[in-house]
Amino acid sequence: MPKFSLIRPEQPLLLLGCGKMGGAMLQGWLKGGLSGDAVIVADPNRAGVLDMLPKLNTKNIVADIADLPGRLAPSFIILAVKPQFMDQAMASLKSLDYADSVFLSIAAGKTVGYFERHLGQAAAIVRAMPNTPASIGKGITVGYPNKNVSDYQKDICHDLLSAVGNVEWVEEEKLIDAVTAVSGSGPAYVFSMVEALAGAGEQIGLPPELANKLARQTICGSGALLEQSDEAASQLRMNVTSPNGTTEAGLNILMGEKGLGKLMGETVRAAHQKSKDLAD
After folding, report:
1. For strand 139-145 and strand 124-129, is the pairing parallel, antiparallel, or unpaired?
2. Residues 6+ apart with CB under 8 A from 206
3. Residue 52: its pLDDT value, please?
4. Under a CB-based contact definition with an 8 Å cutoff, are residues 80 and 22 in contact?
5. Fold for domain 13-176?
6. pLDDT score, position 4
7. CA of 246: how far to CAs of 59, 151, 236, 256, 258, in Å?
8. Which sign does the torsion angle of CA 171, 173, 179, 184 carry?
9. What pLDDT shows up at residue 71?
10. What is the distance between the alpha carbons of residues 2 and 278, in angstroms, rounded to a whole number?
11. Ranges of each domain in the chain
12. What is the DSSP string of 148-160?
């Protein structure tokens, strides 16, 4: 893998937006060996970035691209601003020499076509969908490169995204909407299950604090077991389920005709449709 080989102080990486996701990625890059001198951060909350990354060169942290001296020619431009601010970010790029830059976007709902309209048909663009566990290095990100991204550039993007977890790639951009519905929104589904499990515990008499602790640790422990085991989720489920036991009694409801499978299908389809609507 190239491991940031194209990113140097004279052709730096430019990070637009350094919130939770952008900040987590930047911390991962620096830990992975990317030189702080080869990174420029543009974020309106400059003071917050300095607090989060005190070892970063203060000259390389600006509130706005317009504050950068000269005409910068970044090797990679990471678009980590919120989708509603992307139009403003696109307008600010006019002060850069980005003819040879690779654009890596983690903004939900912003398609490759959107960026090509703003940056030109020749622009090298990667659209990626991470999820919030990336903030602790446990994320899963799926990327899609347009035809202008070389294999070498894609490899570096893979390294950049790997800083916050696992990375997968799709060959059709429309699959990003499905990814959004499953892994992008998925953490919220899991957190909702914790709430539901804790609430159910309260209904059968557990004190709220204990019910919440049991639900949280059960989900966390099960996730850790799933990560470390080579067995399929279905097998792990069966490992817990004794014939005619308590787990089987509960699963008869959860896996019934109107149970979790049907509900999750409806949930993911709704999120999938919304992702397509936002992209359109």
Report:
1. antiparallel
2. 214
3. 81
4. yes
5. Rossmann fold (3.40.50)
6. 83
7. 61, 52, 16, 16, 20
8. positive
9. 81
10. 34
11. 13-176, 186-279
12. T--HHHHHHHHHH
First to last CA, the chain: 35
- Among 134, 110, 112, smallest CA distance to 122 is for 112
Average pLDDT per 10 consecutive residues for the chain, totaling 280 residues: 80 93 89 89 89 81 86 93 93 92 94 96 97 92 98 96 95 96 97 98 98 98 97 97 97 95 97 88
Calpha distance 78→254 (Å, rounded): 42
Q: For residue 268, what pLDDT is reported?
A: 97
Helix, strand, or coil here: 115? helix
Can you give the pLDDT at residue 59? 86
**Structure-block tokens of residue 16:** 């637009």
* Tokens standing for residue 21: 């996701």
Tokens of 209: 């604090």
Residue among 116, 108, 42, 118 at smallest CA distance from 77? 42
pTM over 0.85: yes
Closest C-alpha to 176, from 106, 237, 238, 240: 106
3-state helix, strand, coil in the chain (%, to 5): 55, 15, 30
CATH classification for the domain delimited by 186-279, as one of 3.40.30.10, 3.80.10.10, 1.10.3730.10, 1.10.390.10: 1.10.3730.10
* H-state helical runs in the chain: 20-31, 46-52, 86-92, 112-119, 151-162, 175-179, 186-203, 208-228, 233-240, 246-254, 260-279
